[in-house]
Amino acid sequence: MTGTHLLFISLALSLGAAVEVQRPRGVPITKRQFYDENLPFTCLDGSRTIPFDRVNDDYCDCKDGSDEPGTSACPNGNFHCTNAGFRPTFIPSSRINDGICDCCDTTDEYNSGAKCENTCKELGRKEREVLQRMAEITKEGFLLKQQLIEEAKAGQQERQRKLTEMQNSRKEMEEKVEALRTVKETAEVPEKEAKERHLKAWEGKADGVFVQFMMMFVFFSVSLAELQTHAELDSDADGSFSETEAQALFGGAEQVDTAAFERVWSNIKDKYVSEVTSCSALQYNVLVTLSVWCLSVMPSEVAVTVLSSTAAQKARDDFEESERALREVEDQIKNIEKEISFDFGPSAEYTYLYSQCYELPTSEYIYRLCPFNRVSQKPKYGGSETNLGTWGAWAGPEENKYLLMKYEHGTGCWQGPNRSTTVKLTCGKETAVTSTSEPSRCEYLMEFTTPAVCQDPPNADSSLPGHDEF
């Protein structure tokens, strides 16, 4: 209800002492012209014309019941309660003289003998107090709304400034990333070449190891017990080359000759002779003979490899760090662009709700509304959270779509649709969830107050509407 409506109603209620215009019982003043006692009466649906003395004669002549506004003769008739000092209203004609007071001015029980008390003035007084409080809330809320609009404008300008700044920063960072990519690729060339040289040298020494072992089997076979003295063949590097490991290595044979060794050499070579980038790595799980060779590698060659790897690794680290920083900036740009693109109302008055959440505890659940994001409920005493819908769109009437929010595609109900929530926004000084309900299965309704909804209250000297129901 807008501030204008509140004022109009309040003014109307204050006119309780107005003089009532004479007309047939049960007829509103808006239809007084159709009930001229000096003329025949024509049914309001135009179906027939009757003498005026048949109006309110307790017999239904018109199909629309318009000839009996003050009696219960017509089943489809309506009786108008003037209710001077309060709200005028209509009741079904069947309630006329039924012994129950429906009109606060008691006019519906004019011939029933019911003891009714005219409560219109008291009801009007109470309603005027409520309307006055609502008018004050609307006024204060509207002032807060103006502040929200100013803050939104400043925030929008700041976001736009930050976006431009970060876009410029992104361009510089992209150039830096490409420059570091070139440095990395250049530094990796000598590293790769050094690794290839070492691999070739390693393979040469590995072939030498093969020859040494082959010499062991040229003239005689070797027993498993003798093989166990070569701890360099230990497969699990536990410091002990067991009989079981020896049998597994040579297919369960008790004696190992040249042919048997040739068959398993490729496996030994693949397992123990891998590409190595440093002496420390080389000395782990390798043959003793090859370990000795590692220590005998020319110092200059080792130095070249270490220096090449160090330079390349630093270049990789610098490149990866610059890429990470660029990704962070791009994520921030996306978030700012997303926020700027949101529809926060005609004057961006709803901007302040973005990234905020509001809760309402009930006897069983804690309901949580995060505007422009999602709605959820969680059991008050432990349990998992249920998604009641994610932001969909503004869903209010055409004249003001910003009165309703729609949240859709929540957690599915058992053998039912996905949960959804409609949030009804009303004017208030505070920003809060005030109530929740489930009108239909899996469809929730949430009441939410915010100053952003409050409309400009009318001036005290606004044109006064006539109270045409007296």
TrEMBL record:
<dbReference type="InterPro" id="IPR028146">
    <property type="entry name" value="PRKCSH_N"/>
</dbReference>
<keyword id="KW-0175">Coiled coil</keyword>
<dbReference type="InterPro" id="IPR039794">
    <property type="entry name" value="Gtb1-like"/>
</dbReference>
<keyword id="KW-0256">Endoplasmic reticulum</keyword>
<dbReference type="Pfam" id="PF13015">
    <property type="entry name" value="PRKCSH_1"/>
</dbReference>
<dbReference type="GO" id="GO:0001889">
    <property type="term" value="P:liver development"/>
</dbReference>
<feature type="coiled-coil region">
    <location>
        <begin position="312"/>
        <end position="339"/>
    </location>
</feature>
<dbReference type="GO" id="GO:0017177">
    <property type="term" value="C:glucosidase II complex"/>
</dbReference>
<feature type="coiled-coil region">
    <location>
        <begin position="156"/>
        <end position="186"/>
    </location>
</feature>
<dbReference type="InterPro" id="IPR044865">
    <property type="entry name" value="MRH_dom"/>
</dbReference>
<keyword id="KW-0732">Signal</keyword>
<keyword id="KW-1015">Disulfide bond</keyword>
<feature type="domain" description="MRH">
    <location>
        <begin position="355"/>
        <end position="456"/>
    </location>
</feature>
<protein>
    <recommendedName>
        <fullName>Glucosidase 2 subunit beta</fullName>
    </recommendedName>
</protein>
<dbReference type="Pfam" id="PF12999">
    <property type="entry name" value="PRKCSH-like"/>
</dbReference>
<dbReference type="GO" id="GO:0006491">
    <property type="term" value="P:N-glycan processing"/>
</dbReference>
<dbReference type="InterPro" id="IPR009011">
    <property type="entry name" value="Man6P_isomerase_rcpt-bd_dom_sf"/>
</dbReference>
<dbReference type="InterPro" id="IPR036607">
    <property type="entry name" value="PRKCSH"/>
</dbReference>
<feature type="signal peptide">
    <location>
        <begin position="1"/>
        <end position="18"/>
    </location>
</feature>
